[in-house]
Amino acid sequence: MSQEEKKQDAKDQLAFATIAAEAGSIKDGANPVSQPIYLSACYRHPSLDQAINFDRLKGFTYSRVEAPNRKVAEETIAKMEEGYQAFAVASGMAAVQLVLSVLKSGDEVVSLDDLYGGDFRYFRHLESHFGIAFKQWNGQKVEDLVSLLTDKTKIVWLETPSNPTMKELDIKKIADAVHNFNEKILVAVDNTFYTPYYQKPLTLGADVVIHSATKYLGGHNDILGGLVVVNDPDLANTYFQYTITVGDTMSNFDSWLLTRSLKTLPIRMDRHTASAQKIAKFLETANHVEKVLYPGKAGMISFYLDSEAEVERVLNSVKVITFAESLGGAESLITIPYYQTHDDVEAEQRVRLGITTKLLRLSVGLEGPDDLIADLKQALGD
Q: Which residues, renumbered to this chain, carry the PTM N6-(pyridoxal phosphate)lysine (predicted)?
C-alpha cells in the first residue's frame, strides 16, 4: 500500500464501533445481512483459464488457502488494529508459532520475562530443537532492553498488560529504541488483554500484533483461535506462505463465530471495564486480600490473598464465578496461575515475578457486578 493509499485509508477510517457492527455484513449470494457459514472445503473453477490465472485475493479455491468466513474475520481484525493484513489460525499458540516461524538457527529473541506460560514452553522447544536463543528483559528500563540486543536479534516479544502481574509497557518508546538499534528487528506485541478497543500496537510502532482470539475477541468461551496482524506486505506474504504450508488456519465455522463476537466487542469491553473497576475497588479493602493488581481498564484483575488456605477456600467456594482456566468471556473465571496458566514457567522465575501460590487471577465477565462482589464476599468469608 502506497503512502497516498494509507493517507486515504486513514481519512476514510470508520469508527471502531462501526467496523465492529458491520463485520460480516456483506453482499453475498442471496444478499444476507449476516454472512452465512461456508462449510465447504473447496470451490468451483468456472474455467481452465480462471484456474491457471487464479488470484486468491479475488476468489476461493481451497479452504486451507483462503475461505470466505476466515477472510471476513481477518479483514475485520486488520481494520480494528489498523494493520495491513491479518491471519486467523487455530489457537493462540498457533499464532505464537506463526510469528516465530521467521526464525532460523542462530537467531536471537528478547522477550519480556512476564508472559503467558505457554510462550516460555514454546521458547524452550525452539531453543533445544533449533538452536534459537531467548533472552529475558524485566520490563523496567528500556536501555536495559537495548543492551540485550545484538546483530543476531530478530524479534522483541512483549505482552502488555502482562499475564498475570499486569505490567504495562510503553510500546512506542520500546519500538523506537529497538528500531533505532536495528530497524529490521520485529517488535511483536501480545494484545490479548486490551484488544484493539483499548490499544493498537501497530500505530505505536510495533511490527506484529498477536491475539489469543479464544479470549476477549471470541468473548463467549466457545472457540479456540489465534490472530496475527502485520503492517508490512513482505512479512504478510511470508506468514501467508507459512500458514498455507502447515495448514493451521482457522475453520470457517470458528471464523464465523469470531466475526459474530467481534460485532459486540466495544459493548463487551465497556462492560468488562465498568464491572472490573467496581470489583477491584471492593477487593482493595476486602478481608484476606493483601494486594490488588489492576491496570484500570479491561476485565483482568490479579490479587494476593494472605494464605494458601484462603486461596483454597476461595477457589472451592465461589458459586457465580467459575474456577476455570481461561479469560475474556461472558462468564467470570478465576484461576491460580502458579499451578495452571504458568505451570510451564520455571519455579524460580514464577516466585521472582510474584507468581506465587497466593496469587489469583480473575477474569471479570458480563454478570451483574454486585452479584460477583457478593460471591467474592461469601468466598472470602466476609
A: 215
Give the class (CATH, top level) of 13-263. Answer: alpha beta
**Is-catalytic flag, 28?**
no
User: What does the pLDDT average to over 322-339?
Assistant: 96
| Per-residue model confidence (pLDDT) at position 29 | 67
Q: Is the pLDDT of residue 79 over 80?
A: yes
Torsional class of 207: left (φ above 0), alpha (ψ -120 to 50), beta (otherwise):
alpha
Torsion angle of alpha carbons 338, 321, 223, 30, nearest 10°?
A: -160
Active site residue 116: yes
Whether residue 3 is predicted with pLDDT greater than 60 in this model: the reply is no
- The strand pairing partners of 304, in sequence order, are 291, 359
CB 65 within 8 Å of CB 54:
no
Of the given ranges (37-51, 189-203, 263-277), which has the lowest mean pLDDT?
Answer: 37-51
Domain ranges for the chain, please list them. 13-263, 265-380
Q: Which of the following is catalytic: 43, 64, 176, 304?
A: 64
Q: What pLDDT is stored for residue 27 in this prediction?
A: 61
Which of the residues 107, 114, 119, 190 is marked catalytic? 190
114 as an active site residue: the answer is: no
Among the listed residues 71, 215, 271, 358, the single catalytic one is 215
Is 11 a residue whose pLDDT tops 70? no
φ, ψ of residue 229 in degrees (nearest 5): -125, 135
Of the candidates 70, 79, 116, 207, the residue annotated as catalytic is 116
Confidence grade of residue 86 (pLDDT, cut at 50, 70, 90)? very high
Give per-residue burial for 233-266: e unless 16+ CB within 10 Å, then b.
Answer: eebbeebbebbeeeebbbbbebbbbbbbbbbbbb
Give the cell for residue 232: 508490512
**SS3 helix, strand, coil % of the chain, rounded to 5?**
40, 15, 45
Average model confidence (pLDDT) across the chain: 94
Distance CA 216, CA 366 (A): 12
Q: Is 278 a catalytic residue?
A: no
The residue behind cell 520500546 is: 174
Which residues does 234 contact at the CB level (< 8 Å), separation at least 6?
Answer: none
